[in-house]
Design brief:
single chain, two-stranded antiparallel ribbon, about 40% helix
Length: about 200
């Protein structure tokens, strides 16, 4: 358990950093600052080991090829990667088995699945908090644009908007959905940004 400020990062944060893509207010500087602080031991960044597969699968973009070894070295020097275990996978399965319908929409077309990787990321963050670690923020850019089984998925940003009428769920699922909602899911913006001169 860390005594520092702790964050959880979704794969898309690493991909934005890898491809030098400014998203939502151009916060690449924040990502770099978080990574430097994590490398120095000032903060702790957690993620799932799934980031390796997701980053490796997206290493080439627009004809630009990055060195996978350098990318992995940067991750390994800055991030505490948590491997999916039985507990995490069970949490992910329970979150995925919920029928998500956007608040105010009772019709079936408004229903979306929670993507598998997103469920594992949320489950990993819930697991980390279950060890006694308090995550300050869960950083993501996920707005639900990816597809699973041909349909758009539940976004991680705004996840709570899809949890209004969960239908038939167990008490355990309600508790886990509540824990996922309780994660402060935001885009990365450093609370004390460095001034660039």
């Amino acid at each position: 358990m860390s005594k520092n400020t702790s964050y959880f990062w979704d794969s898309c944060i690493f991909l934005a950093w890898l491809h030098n893509e400014a998203r939502d207010n151009g916060n690449l500087e924040s990502i770099g600052q978080f990574l430097e602080e994590a490398k120095s031991g000032l903060i702790t960044i957690y993620s799932s080991t799934l980031i390796y597969a997701e980053v490796a699968g997206n290493i080439e973009k627009k004809g630009e090829r990055k060195n996978i070894s350098q990318v992995f070295a940067a991750i390994e020097g800055s991030v505490v990667c948590v491997s999916p275990n039985d507990i995490i996978m069970r949490i992910a399965a329970l979150l995925r088995s919920v029928k998500y319908v956007k608040n105010g929409s009772e019709r079936k077309p408004g229903e979306r699945p929670l993507g598998t990787v997103d469920a594992i990321m949320l489950a990993t963050a819930i697991y980390v908090e279950g060890t006694g670690e308090k995550l300050t923020e869960f950083h993501t850019y996920d707005k639900g644009k990816s597809r699973s089984e041909g349909r758009r998925t539940v976004p991680l940003l705004g996840y709570e908007e899809w949890c209004g009428s969960l239908g038939r769920v167990t008490n355990e699922q309600k508790e886990l959905v509540g824990k996922a909602i309780g994660l402060k899911r935001v885009t990365p913006a450093h609370p004390n940004p460095l001034l660039l001169l």
